[in-house]
TrEMBL record:
Organism, as annotated: Streptomyces cirratus
UniProtKB keywords: Chaperone
Name of the protein described by the UniProt record: 10 kDa chaperonin
Subunit description: Heptamer of 7 subunits arranged in a ring.
InterPro entries named among the record's database cross-references: Chaperonin_GroES (IPR020818), Chaperonin_GroES_sf (IPR037124), GroES-like_sf (IPR011032)
Domain of life: Bacteria
Similarity-based family: Belongs to the GroES chaperonin family.
Length: 114
């Protein structure tokens, strides 16, 4: 299986062009604040970006690799279910940031630890 291929029920799936398939870190339903307060799923939250793990990338994606963590806007997403798991499909240009150990010390690094 190559970097831009995943499987679904024994059929290979290849991402096309500049598409990125990610597994969202945003928990569905209730969540807890940093102080331990339970926040119900129905609570309105201001616009907030979310982190996700890259699962597969298309052949024209240059700045992201499978296994990287990326920052994206969860309101601008297209969800897809593959093998019972929900993933988010987006274009590379819709990503706001990439966090990966391979970027450490690069000239594009901000020095922030995420």
């Amino acid at each position: 299986m190559s970097d831009n291929t995943t499987t679904h029920d024994k059929l290979p799936i290849r991402m096309l062009h500049d598409r990125v398939l990610v597994r969202s870190d945003v928990p569905e339903g209730e969540r807890r604040s940093g102080g331990g307060i339970l926040i119900p799923a129905t609570a309105a939250v201001g616009k907030r970006l979310a982190w996700a793990e890259v699962v597969a990338v298309g052949q024209n994606v240059r700045g992201v690799e499978p296994g990287d963590r990326v920052l994206y806007d969860p309101e601008d997403r297209a969800e897809v279910e593959v093998g019972g798991a929900t993933y988010v499909l987006m274009r590379e240009r819709d990503l706001h940031a990439v966090a990966a150990e391979r970027l450490e010390g690069s000239k594009d690094s901000t020095g922030l630890y995420l």
